[in-house]
Amino acid sequence: MIVIKMFDLQSYIPTDCYKTVFEIDYNKLYEQGKRLLLFDLDNTLISYREDKLSKETIDLFFNLQQRGFAVVLISNNTTSRLQTALDGYRLDYFANARKPFKKAFRKVLKSYHNITKDQIVLIGDQLMTDCLGARNFGIDVILVKSIEKSSEKWYTRINRFFERKIIKRLYKYDPVTYQKIVAIGGLNEK
Ligand SMILES: [Mg+2]
């Protein structure tokens, strides 16, 4: 059964917020016991105008794996988009994930037998897909600033419309999170 708590503001609260994936305190995550990092692709790692992960991103992944994290891409975009992005770099990925639905998260959990939900963090740029999806599944989520909103397609623009409304409602509901989201540029149009 598909159950999504769309009307519950608590379902959109990120665990933490950073401007980019490079600024995340991965040591802290490791100390907290996190071992599996799920990365969203579009506007988290590359903009819609780019097709390949940068060398910096690949280096980051390599470093994270050296530190003992498992790294996986989980994207609502297509298999070919993910394969092109990885450009031969070997990394597990789940395409057509349909976040915020739970199915892809369940698949990930199934393929990592020794990992429990509290050891997983999703890192993404959208409240409506990444935050809602992670919270719906019951895992932590880090929100990063979208790389370039202006090149997003119509369906993401619809998500952004609702996202802005939710962020504004957080002003009263959870002022600390509201300030964090504003500080990384979460309400910026670009
Ligand atoms: Mg994204």
Features:
190 residues, alpha/beta, Rossmann fold, 6-stranded parallel sheet, 7 helices, 40% helix, 13% strand, binds magnesium ion
What's this, in brief?
With 190 residues, the protein is an alpha/beta fold. The chain is built from 7 helices and 6 strands; from the N terminus they run βαβαβαβαβαβαα.
Could you explain how this protein is built, in words?
The chain has a single domain, classed as HAD superfamily/HAD-like (Rossmann fold), CATH 3.40.50. With 190 residues, it is an alpha/beta fold. It is built from 7 helices and 6 strands. The model has no long low-confidence stretch (mean pLDDT 95). The longest helix is centred in the C-terminal third of the chain and has 20 residues, at 154-173. The chain is 40% helix and 13% strand. Helix 3 (79-86) links the parallel strand 3 (70-74) and strand 4. The radius of gyration is 15 Å and the shape is globular. It binds magnesium ion. Magnesium ion binds at residues 40, 42-44, 124-126.
